[in-house]
What we know:
The protein has about 80 residues and is mainly alpha-helical. It is about 40% helix and about 5% strand. The relative contact order is 0.18.
Amino acid sequence: MFANMLAYKCLSYGKKLIRVNSKYTSQTCNVCGSVNNRMGYNTYGWLKVREWDCPECGTHLDRDVNATINIKETGLAVGLA
Length: 81
């Protein structure tokens, strides 16, 4: 419902709403792009992890900040395409 309301507002202001699939946003390293599958997908495992180190490049990532960067970059890439 929120997405529909946001789409309506964007339309009325002449803006483009870009929807990003959130499936891997917090598990994908924003530096190298590798997906951290070590935690699995259960709610009680991965959601408790607030910070993690990328198994490929070793970058230390805050889960929420990492997801924010991935969403922004995906949205910009889709918006420019």
